[in-house]
Design goal:
Elements: H1 11-29, E1 33-39, H2 44-49, H3 56-63, E2 68-72, E3 75-88, E4 93-105, E5 111-117, H4 141-148
Antiparallel strand pairs: 1-3, 2-3, 3-4, 4-5
């Protein structure tokens, strides 16, 4: 008479354990929030390579093209902005920190100075909500018609 293996009672337990392990692996690898960098990744080694007297071409080779430029008379500045954000699985972004690397050039396109600015260096600016009214904005359509006849 052939021997019967008593594996039938253990099969549901083994299947449940396998499913639990698979689900645990899935949930531990995905998080509800992720941290990432927007803009430039400003590394310390790249900033150390930028020194006074270097050309704009060398700065472009080390850091890439600037995100923004500005010219003040005979001096110009290049700005590299790095923003670290936390993004939820639902698409909501929260800014964690922002760093701006400013590189200043003279009229010969040589580096004069560099500066790193953070949120602590910024100022809060209140946006003015008042508007200057334009001609006819206060009048209704009927008022404008009546005023066109001199009344």
């Amino acid at each position: 008479m052939p021997k019967r293996i008593a594996s039938a009672p253990f099969a549901p337990i083994a299947a449940a354990a396998l499913v639990a392990v698979a689900l645990t692996a899935c949930t531990s690898s995905t998080s509800l929030t992720t941290k990432r960098t927007q803009g430039y990744e400003i590394s310390d080694s790249a900033m150390q390579q930028i020194r006074p007297g270097q050309s704009q071409q060398l700065v472009t080779l080390v850091l890439g093209s600037p995100q923004s430029t500005n010219t003040f008379g005979d001096q110009s500045a290049w700005y590299y902005v790095q923003t670290k954000v936390q993004q939820t699985s639902f698409g909501l972004n929260t800014g964690l920190e922002r760093t701006v690397l400013a590189i200043y050039f003279d009229q010969n396109k040589k580096v004069v100075d560099k500066a790193v600015y953070t949120a602590a260096d910024g100022r809060v600016i209140t946006v003015e909500s008042r508007r200057t009214q334009s001609f006819g904005e206060d009048r209704t359509f009927i008022d404008q018609i009546l005023n066109s006849f001199g009344g």
